[in-house]
Amino acid sequence: MIRDKKPAETVEKELTYIQKVWHTVAIVALLVVVILIARVAFNVLLMVLAGTLISTYFHGLGDLIQRKTKWKRKPAMYISVGGTFILLGLLFWFMGANIQKQVKELSDTLPHTVANFKAKLSETSLGQKVLDYTQDDDNSQKLIVTAQHFFSTSFGVMGNIYIIMFLSIFFTLNPSVYKDGIILLVPHDRKELAKCIIDRISFSLKGWLKGMLLSIVLITIMLFTGLTIMGIPAALVLALFAGMLKIIPNFGSLAAMIPGVLLALTISLNSAIIVALIYIVSQTIVSNIVTPIIQNKMINLPPALTIISQVLMGTLSGVLGIILAVPLLSIVFILVDELYVKKINDEDDVRSVQSKPDPTLAD
Q1: Which of 47, 120, 166, 243 can bridge 216 by disulfide, Cβ–Cβ 3.0-4.6 Å?
Q2: How many domains does the chain fold into?
Q3: Which domain holds residue 102?
Q4: How far apart are CA 173 and CA 77, in angstroms?
Q5: Where are the transmembrane segments (predicted)?
Q6: For residues 299 and 309, is the Cβ–Cβ distance under 8 A?
Q7: How far is it, in rounded angstroms, from Cα 131 to Cα 134?
Q8: What is the pLDDT of residues 269-296, one digit of tens each?
Q9: Mean pLDDT, to the nearest integer, of 255-276?
Q10: How close are the terminal C-alpha atoms of the chain, in Å?
Q11: Has residue 78 been placed in a domain?
Q12: pTM of the prediction?
């Protein structure tokens, strides 16, 4: 029996279809690989930015020492880097025992604090609904998974810190190598623009660092004083915790207030209200003092856009992304302003000049 042979056109169409399917699969696979590489590369970029910020702090402190003492650059930088590590070591040395004691006290008190909070929360119908929702196994598991993902990083926290510290030291020792290397990659007619952008970014990052350091010191001192007067346990640890979380705008202040208010609830409801007011007033005073300093050194970022960038960065890169969301957003604004907005404005100015009639021809 002779089988019917398929026409050549049909065979060619089937081969073309199979080729298209394989091409599509290859493109999708390539996109997935590129996305995965880009995500890892983005986390590396964040670590580079963190190292740059620490290096900017060292150079800013070195500039201050050089202006005040009239010393040469190298001794000023040695004092900046070495003095910072020595100061941190002394602080941990003198405060370490007190901090360890208060951390133990906080860990011993916290279970009773949470139980007391749940008891007070269950007294209202709305509070009971919240407890039922959080105690549900599925919801609890979702919250745990979300928290783990939220605070996860690509290489682990200790690995990231290790890499960031080494990057900051290398950037501090010889910053001109990296700055000139970036400028070398730019076309000759754009080198001046590249220098201008780098200078603007450096100025902006210095302003952000000054504002953050001032915020951390002020909020730590104010909260430690207020919580000590109120007789709240582990006042030093709570104040340091709030100071460290100040580096995370919007969300950090809210997260820092929770353990302090919970501990105050073990004393009385009035104490909890007063402690909450201490947190709110301290944050408000610090924000009103520091915000003008930051706005003078940085681009005035819209609050809603800042929150959106924090949520996006937290989803992509965890806690490191949240911390660096504001300086990264500032860098993006500077790049857009220099590479797009000013170019558009210059073109509009040229068009407006060309459209004006020549007064000499009118005469």
Answers
A1: 243
A2: 1
A3: 14-342
A4: 9
A5: 21-38, 44-65, 77-96, 150-173, 213-241, 247-265, 272-295, 307-336
A6: no
A7: 5
A8: 788 888 889 988 888 888 776 666 655 5
A9: 82
A10: 99
A11: yes
A12: 0.69
